[in-house]
Design goal:
The chain is of the alpha/beta class and about 550 residues long. It has 13 helices and 26 strands. Helix 1 (about 15-25) runs parallel beside helix 4, helix 1 (about 15-25) runs parallel beside helix 7 and helix 2 (about 50-60) packs parallel to helix 7. Pfam families: FAD_binding_3.
């Protein structure tokens, strides 16, 4: 008889699906419920940035997403029909995804759902959580199906990924702090006649408000406007969209047809805390964004991946204190993403003539200097987050080694034994923990073999890999039969030439968790203490 799932995920949007896939990929069964009858067809979020794409890549989904997406090459800003500024995409280094992709949210959900099924998971549709309580070290959740059947479940862990109006968050009384704009927004996806760039997002700024145009992967464009609230209710029709397009687009474009329209209010809020005992908040349940920059879905996907691998590590015998890092890592990141999108939105909506003139001047100056691109693109990509203050990373860097709390850069690899990866990020794309040993001496070879032997003894080799990295310009040994670790030649990003042999623990998200120099026997064991022990546990941290 199989053991009941120890993690209940409430909400099967991109965030909940990502968390569930990460748990299943790490060998942890999960129960996933959603109040909807099935996936919604509304395209909603469109843009997927590099940080979220790397998370999906570790789940084996990003390539399929890219096949159905439109790569965006840049964005431009206009005022009174004049181009003020431009930003080029696709130039980010150290990533397989150097620029954003335009892909409707249902495509992302569909591909994550297929991955979930492939991992042996499923979604219990038309099942809602109606109450959540914390009793001791467990969560007690009441579930109701559409047919009226009800059950009360007691589980060690709950992930609330149930949207802006989260039942999980509200049941626990966690404040949702922030503001709502005094504007409403309308959008339409459809066929727009006129001269429009096929791979660029355009922002047309006027005293009346903003017009945003974004090309869609399967043809057509999304058009997006802000309005004073309360003029009309319900989704806009083509006539209303055309009226707005004429006013803000100077009559250059015509709405030929639309296949989806929407009218909505925008909130910028962040939950006061992302954890309450055994219950975690993720995605829109934890943070609500302006649509500027497409940050909401991207932040949620990274929440889900972060929670998935951390919960799996604890349930496979890791230190429960690892989960104490979720709030201090993800909440500041989410708050920063909310602030960034709010700042962009307020620049769109400036009304006073002097403020608009200053904005237009600054956009032009920053664009011509390249400063606009250098500032905006990394912020939106959420690729290299500063987690050096996290309780889940080491505080003492090793001389000549990479920095704990930062994502490890990429580098070419020449596979020698046990792997076919030709880049470091390609090796890390499995989404497992990695013990990376770099050095030429016997101490490095011994440390790699010790790490592989210990992880095998624990029974967690499905969670962790060991790679011995040799210098690219030195003699390479021929692999002699099966070895416990992988072997490749290449340079350690962030390392210094001639540095002493060292070992790094790389988390499943590619962040350096710890580094030690191999200056005495047994030092690699200090890194292994942070990895799962293989002893299954369901006990929450205090």
């Amino acid at each position: 008889m199989t053991a009941p799932p120890q993690v209940l995920v409430v909400g099967a949007g991109p965030t909940g699906l990502t968390a569930a896939c990460a748990l299943l990929q790490h060998g942890v069964p999960v129960r996933l419920v959603d109040r909807r009858e099935c996936f919604a067809a509304e395209p909603k979020a469109l843009v997927m940035w590099s940080g979220a794409l790397e998370a999906l890549h570790r789940l084996g989904v990003a390539d399929a997403v890219a096949e159905r997406a439109l790569p965006l090459t840049g964005a431009s800003y206009w005022s009174n029909g004049r181009r003020l500024a431009g930003v080029s995409f696709g130039t980010l280094a150290d990533t397989r995804f150097p620029g954003p992709l335009c892909v409707p949210q249902p495509v992302t959900e569909e591909l994550l759902y297929e991955r979930l099924l492939g991992l042996g998971g499923r979604v219990e549709w038309a099942t809602r959580a109606t109450s959540v309580e914390v009793a001791g070290d467990r969560a007690v959740v009441r579930l109701e199906s559409a047919g009226g059947a009800a059950e009360t479940v007691s589980v060690p862990w709950v992930i609330g990924a149930d949207g802006v109006r989260s039942t999980v968050r509200e049941a626990l009384g966690i404040p949702y702090e922030g503001n709502s704009y005094d504007r409403e927004f309308v959008l339409g996806d459809g066929r727009i006649a006129g001269d429009l760039p096929p791979t660029e997002a355009q922002y047309h700024l006027s005293p009346d408000g903003v017009l945003v145009l974004v090309a869609l992967p399967e043809g057509g464009h999304r058009i997006f406007f802000d309005l004073p609230p309360g003029r009309r209710t319900g989704p806009p029709d083509d006539a209303e969209l055309q009226q707005l397009l004429d006013a803000r687009g100077k009559g250059r474009w015509t709405v030929q047809e639309t296949w989806w329209t929407s009218r909505f209010r925008v909130h910028t809020k962040v939950a006061a805390r992302f954890r309450h005992g055994p219950v975690f908040l993720a995605g829109d349940a934890a943070h609500a964004h302006s649509p500027a920059g497409g940050q909401g879905l991207n932040t949620g996907v990274q929440d889900g991946f972060d929670l998935g691998w951390k919960l799996a590590a604890v349930l496979r015998g890791g230190d429960p204190a690892l989960l104490d890092s979720y709030d201090p890592e993800r909440r500041p990141t989410s708050a920063r993403a909310v602030r960034n999108s709010e700042r962009q939105t307020r620049l769109w909506l400036l009304k006073p003539r002097p403020a608009r003139a200053l904005r237009d001047l600054l956009l032009g100056v920053l664009s011509r200097s390249g400063a606009l691109e250098r500032r905006i693109v990394p912020e939106l990509a959420q690729l290299d987050l500063d987690l050096t203050a996290s309780p889940a990373v080491g505080r003492t860097p090793a001389p000549g080694g990479p920095t704990p709390g930062r994502r490890l850069g990429d580098a070419p690899l020449r596979p020698v034994g046990g792997t076919s990866a030709t880049s470091l990020h390609g090796y890390l794309a499995t989404g497992r923990h990695t013990v990376l040993v770099a050095g030429t001496g016997q101490e490095a070879a011994t440390a790699a073999e010790e790490a592989a032997t210990e992880l095998t003894r624990r029974g967690v080799r499905d969670l962790a890999d060991v790679l011995l990295l040799l210098p690219p310009d030195g003699p390479l040994p021929a692999p002699a039969g099966p070895v416990g670790h992988d072997l490749a030649a290449g340079r350690l990003p962030g390392g210094q030439a001639g540095a002493a042999a060292l070992a790094c623990h790389l988390r499943p998200d590619g962040v350096v968790a710890g580094v030690v120099t191999l200056d005495r026997p047994g030092r690699v064991g200090e890194l292994l203490s942070a990895l799962p022990t293989g002893q299954r546990s369901a006990t929450p941290a205090p």
